[in-house]
């Protein structure tokens, strides 16, 4: 694990922090959305975890980010986990749909001396929407299965085109105080997205020594995660998660990944949340 010990850089990373950390976990900016079991009450919390500095990298950083799960008096669900938030205009179980917004971290001030010579990427805001379905088993064990698709775009500010992510999550109670969950996902991206985050321009090549590379779009990654949530008392919950990403396609073939990083990205973290009804 490589973590910067210089105070200015550490503070920048803590402000940028991890992306995708829920109330009980840290996950990163390239990660697919993470969901919590629908039977949980309203929550607000913080998570701390470790992830890679940039997509495809291998040097690591530590960060702290917030999470919120809130059901309005009208029965609409707001979920805000790290840099990703969505608002459900549908039902808590059954069909779900609504707007989504996200913060996509850039690439700058990285430890890798070669990648540091590449073009910097600004942190930017993404917007879009999602549609999904959540099933609650009415039998003895009230497990939940949730699936969905979200579409996000940056409107050409940093990259053109869009990202499409399909996810599926499963949660079940192991005890009245313990929930266990798992999830799978896949993400498709535009060629402009891949060229921004995984491409090496001729100028980049001259500065870094990496071969020039201009990727196309397509399937970018597969994801999977395991998590557990524990209820300490009426108001306090804790949890932990490990989140794995497997870069594929043109993203995985980038020299940023093959020569300076790894296609296997692992994020892990813990969190604490306050709950109310």
UniProtKB/TrEMBL annotation:
Compartments reported by the entry: Cell outer membrane
Residues in the signal sequence: 1-31
Highest taxon of the lineage: Bacteria
Keywords of this entry: Cell outer membrane, Membrane, Signal
Main localisation: membrane
Gene Ontology cellular component terms for the protein in this record: cell outer membrane
Record family assignment: Belongs to the MipA/OmpV family.
Protein name as annotated: MipA/OmpV family protein
Species this chain originates from: Cupriavidus oxalaticus
